[in-house]
From TrEMBL:
Gene Ontology CC terms: cytoskeleton; cytosol
Database matches in SMART domains: THY
Region (Disordered), start-end ranges: 26-49, 64-130
Lineage: Eukaryota, Metazoa, Ecdysozoa, Arthropoda, Hexapoda
Protein family per UniProt: Belongs to the thymosin beta family.
The species this protein was found in: Schistocerca gregaria
Molecular function GO labels: actin monomer binding
Gene3D superfamilies named among the record's database cross-references: Single helix bin
Biased composition range(s): Basic and acidic residues: 26-40, 64-92, 103-114
Keywords attached to this entry: Cytoplasm, Cytoskeleton
Entry's localization field: Cytoplasm, Cytoskeleton
Superkingdom, taxonomy of origin: Eukaryota
GO biological process, one term: actin filament organization
Entry protein name: Thymosin
């Protein structure tokens, strides 16, 4: 028995006789060579496996039962500084601001005196000769 989804011979479209003879006389060796470029690359097995693991992780998170969690108390290990520490820090900031904004024109001019001068070239040459 024929498949009910396949059309019968009388239902198929008719082909013009000149086109039919051209189809029958077709020789594949007369075709031009062409390179095939795959534009839609299928994912590798690794890509599919990675995607499956990601989906499994997401499903695990979405279906997680929060009823299994235990209640805990939060212990603050790094408390905020008290008022005294904040005041001390502000004092340091004022000191730094004072240094940054210091007016150098109020300084007195001084002369630098070398207490331990380096030896001259002649003294070095004399030591080399000795």
């Amino acid at each position: 028995m024929a498949n009910p989804a396949s059309p019968s011979l009388k239902d198929l479209p008719k082909v013009a006789p000149d086109f039919k003879s051209e189809l029958e006389g077709f020789k594949p060796d007369k075709m031009k060579k062409a390179e095939t470029h795959e534009k839609n690359v299928l994912p590798t097995a690794e890509d599919v496996a990675t995607e499956k693991t990601q989906k499994a992780l997401l499903q695990g998170v979405e279906k997680f039962d929060t009823g299994k969690l235990k209640h805990t108390e939060t212990q603050e290990k790094n408390p905020l500084p008290d008022k005294d520490a904040i005041q001390q820090e502000k004092g340091k900031q004022n000191l730094i601001a004072g240094i940054e904004n210091f007016d150098t024109s109020k300084l007195k001019h001084t002369e630098t005196q070398e207490k331990n001068p380096l030896p001259t070239k002649e003294a070095i040459d004399e030591e080399k000769k000795a």
